[in-house]
Structure formats: structure tokens, C-alpha cells
Amino acid sequence: MENNSTAIQLSIFISSTDKKGITVLYEDIVFEAKKAGLSGATVLKGMLGYGASSIIHSYKFWELAEKLPTVIQLIDEEEKILKFFESIRPTLESMRYGCLVTTQQVNVLLYKSGQKRMFDL
Amino acid sequence: MENNSTAIQLSIFISSTDKKGITVLYEDIVFEAKKAGLSGATVLKGMLGYGASSIIHSYKFWELAEKLPTVIQLIDEEEKILKFFESIRPTLESMRYGCLVTTQQVNVLLYKSGQKRMFDL
Amino acid sequence: MENNSTAIQLSIFISSTDKKGITVLYEDIVFEAKKAGLSGATVLKGMLGYGASSIIHSYKFWELAEKLPTVIQLIDEEEKILKFFESIRPTLESMRYGCLVTTQQVNVLLYKSGQKRMFDL
Q: ipTM of this model?
């Protein structure tokens, strides 16, 4: 991504307990995004909410289930974002409790690539 | 909401300690959103910030007050979102410490309704 | 900001451990935003993610480092937002591990200024 360019923010709304096989889904998506070379990913966990299954989940009961609304935000050029979305679409469509995926256009004011460290995961 | 349609994201910035009567405001809004049939809601709690009252709240003192900036995000069709906003507007306008409500347009790439469970709240 | 006006949301993606001198960077930015008179700021900490340095950070190891993706969201009129961004740009460009700054247009449905309290920070 270039400074002063247009990019796409992809937001994936799932539950913190959604799984792909035995892997936590949001972890899987972040690792896949990194493999696909996307510029970055941020996973935000909500403290209350409900999604496509209309069940309200609350932080108050996290000790029991920790089932909380979770948003994964990914920002990159449109082509890369849409290609990545198509690659994870089958997984998202197979989720039992529903999900929501949105995009919105953003302007990149500054994108500064960092120095890699010795023990990069 | 349909796949590949346009929707509106409503963001409500309040404090985690705002109340409507004896109910926590963000809980009230989430339950009202569900009653209104909105597709989903996510409550994100910040760890530092300030709002319309210009008082900085920090997670560092959460044991004392847990007064933290809180964002409620709701996504649905424009008409439903605006109708819902008008229904909670009087409550928001009566808040003592101010609030901010914004909308932005998003594209829905995927909206998958989930299977309901036996003990739906 | 006026009700029913257009504003800009500035999103600054950094790490929770980024520092400006001995100050935590996200704290510094929030205090600078308040000094600049911006209407509000919200700092959201992610639980997993990676940024421009492509190192994945997880909440699972927070006891060791608490190095987590962090988003600072600021909303105000375009002119104020861009002026503020220029004032913190040198700091962001000097960060070793990279960062991402985006803007997007939002509509302000309601901005209610709060009553100040006696012990305003």
C-alpha cells in the first residue's frame, strides 16, 4: 500500500468460539491473512453483542463460555482483499451460527513498514 | 440483508458507566436492537479515551470506576438503522456526559444467518 | 461538530508497546488529541493480530509482553483531523515497527457535548 492511496477495510464478524476443525477460526483467519501477504490484521473482541444467530453473548459469563462477538479487521488493496475473502469464503459459509462480512473504502494516510525482528513468527 | 448489498454501520460512542434508569446503557441498546430485529450488535470497550465531556478515562484505574469509552456497532439496512436510531435518540440526548453517533456506508459481502439454539435468550 | 454533518474518522494502528521517549505512544496520542481540541478519542486493544512488521502478537502471551495491536479512533471535522495527523506524523514515521493510518468519511447523526465535572483531568 502507498501513502495517500485508497484501500479496502474488510471486517469479519464472527464468534470467539467459532472453529475450523480444531483451530479457533479467528486465529486461522489471521494466519491465513499473513500467508496471503495482507498488510495487517487486528482482532477485536466485544464484551456484549449478538450476531446472525440472534443469541446475546455477554462478557459477564465469560468464565463459562467466553463466547463473545469478535471482529477481524484487515486492510489492503482491493484486489488482495477480495482474493483473500474468496479464499476464506467456504469456511465462513460452513459456520453453523452465521457471520457477517463487510467492506468499506478507506484512505491510507501513512503506511510504514516495520523492521523485522530476529524471531519473526 | 442480502449478499452484495449496501448497508449502514451505526456507531454509538458512550461511556461504559452511562445508565438508563438502573440499566447499563450499552446493555439496554443491545437488547433494544435485538427487539427491533437488527441483524447484529457488537459492543467494544476501549482501554483509554475521552468523549464529549473531555474527561480522559483509563483502563489503569478500572478497579475504581471501570468508566471506559465504549462503542456499540450495529449494521443493517439504512431504513432499519435510522428508525432504530430515532427510537433511542431521546435516551442518548438525555445522557449527562455527552455522546457521539455516526453512520458510514458499508458493502455486505456475506451475511449468513445462523441456526438458532434451544435456549435463545 | 454539528448534527447531520460530515466528519472524518482517523484510525491509527500501532502496537500497545510502541513508545515515544518513555511515554506509551497511544497515551501520548490521546493526550495530544485532547490538547488539540479533538472531540473524542477511543483506544481499542486487539487480542491478536499483526502489523507492518508482520509479527503476529497474541493475547495468549500477554503476561510476557502485552504487545498487542492497538487502534486509536478519532472523529472530528476534516480540517482538524488532518492538522492533528500532521502534528503527530513525525512521531509515527519514527516508529521502528511500522504503523498504519487511515481515514474514512462518516456522517454525524448526534454529537452531544457533556457537562464537565469538577475534577476534569
A: 0.87
Instruction: Give C29-34's long-range contacts (Cβ < 8 A, gap of 24+).
Output: C29/C72, C29/C88, C30/B48, C30/B49, C30/B50, C30/B56, C30/C72, C31/B56, C32/C84, C32/C87, C32/C88, C33/C74, C33/C84, C34/B50, C34/B54, C34/B56
Please give the backbone phi and psi of residue A102, each rounded to the nearest 5 degrees, phi first.
-125, 160
Amino acid symbol at A120:
D
Three-class HEC string of chain A: CCCCEEEEEEEEEEECCCEECCEEHHHHHHHHHHHCCCCCEEEEECCEEECCCCCCEEHHHCCCCCCCEEEEEEEECHHHHHHHHHHHHHHHHCCCCEEEEEEEEEEEEEEEECCCCCCCC
Question: Mind listing the pLDDT tens digit for each residue in C9-59?
Answer: 999 999 988 999 999 999 999 999 999 999 999 999 898 888 766 677 765
* Contact call for C100 and A75, based on CB within 8 A: yes
Minimal Cα–Cα distance from C3 to chain A, Å? 23
The minimal CB distance from B112 to the residues A69, A98, A103 is found for A98
Residues of A in contact with C89 (CB under 8 A): 110
The pTM assigned to this predicted structure is 0.90
- Measured N-to-C along each axis, helices B25-35 and B78-93 cross at an angle, to the nearest 10 degrees, of 150
> For every one of its 121 residues, what pLDDT tens digit does chain A have, with 9 covering 90 and above?
899 999 999 999 999 889 999 999 999 999 999 999 999 999 998 988 887 666 777 655 443 456 789 999 999 999 999 999 999 999 999 987 789 999 999 999 999 876 654 444 4
CA B2 – CA B110 distance, rounded (Å): 8
Cβ–Cβ contact A74 with C under 8 A: no
* Cα C36 to Cα B54: distance, rounded to the nearest angstrom: 12
Contact C51 A114 (CB under 8 A): yes
